[in-house]
Design a protein that fits this description.
Helix content: 10-25%
CATH topology: Glucose Oxidase, domain 1
Distance between the termini: 25 Å
CATH architecture: 3-Layer(bba) Sandwich
Order of helices and strands: EEEEEEHEHEHEHEEEE
CATH superfamily: Putative cyclase
Number of domains: 1
Number of strands: 13
Shape: globular
Strand content: 15-25%
CATH class: Alpha Beta
């Protein structure tokens, strides 16, 4: 769990999870492997780190291509989709984010909304996968589309329910990405409170990729 800020004289707060061996990943994905090796023929100082991982590991952005072939890929993402003002909203429901709770927060068109739930306090304390994390309900996803938000963030590995629902209805990923709303997953918001922030969460420029890890940071707006 990340507690420290980014730099000794900075008020930027790192809300990314550390990328490290044995970290929790979505069931069925390959485990992250970091190998620090000395290149062949090099007998002096310096190592090279070899990385084996899925694009959807740790704190990451989902592009519409993730669920819709031929749609916007991560390298085509407008930079202002990942940079700019954002609002952290604390969710009290311990099961799911629902429209009834969202209606109290006066969500506005174009906003970047990051949801701080019970996940931040408990899910990142272990490398074991939590099967009862707080997710964004399908109804809440539709509400966010109607409100016209530009980005939605959640503090665990998926915006979707951990248990499949009605397969004849679009799930949360499909609802948000189908409306070109960018999804930021894997946040650790344990060190921030509700309120307004500047957000930076730039992805790697992975050509034709449906997602990418990011280094997500927040700066309080006074």
């Amino acid at each position: 769990m990340i507690k420290n800020k980014c730099g000794s004289n900075s008020n930027w707060i790192d809300v990314s999870v550390p990328l490290q061996n044995d970290m929790v990943v979505w069931p069925g994905m390959i485990n992250l492997q970091l190998e620090h090796r000395l290149p062949k023929g090099r007998d002096g100082g310096g190592t090279i780190t070899r990385i084996r991982m899925e694009a959807h590991t740790g704190t990451r952005l989902d592009a519409p291509q993730h669920f819709f072939a031929g749609r916007t890929t991560i390298d085509q993402m407008p930079l202002d989709a990942a940079i700019g003002p954002a609002r952290v909203i604390e969710i009290t429901d311990h099961k799911a984010i629902k429209p009834e709770e969202l209606k109290r927060h006066n969500i506005r068109r174009g906003e970047k909304i990051l949801f701080k739930t019970l996940n931040s306090q408990r899910c990142w304390q272990t490398n074991n996968f939590f099967t009862d994390y707080v997710y964004i309900s399908r109804e809440a996803a539709s509400f966010l589309v109607d409100m016209g938000v530009s980005l939605v963030g959640i503090d665990y590995l998926s915006v979707d329910s951990p248990t499949p629902g009605d397969q004849n209805q679009p799930d949360t990923h499909q609802t948000l990405l189908g409306a070109e709303i960018w999804i930021l997953e894997g946040l650790d918001l344990s060190s921030v409170s509700h309120g307004n922030y500047n957000l930076i969460c730039l992805p790697l420029k992975l050509v034709k990729s449906d997602g990418s890890p990011v280094r997500a940071v927040l700066q309080p707006i006074s």
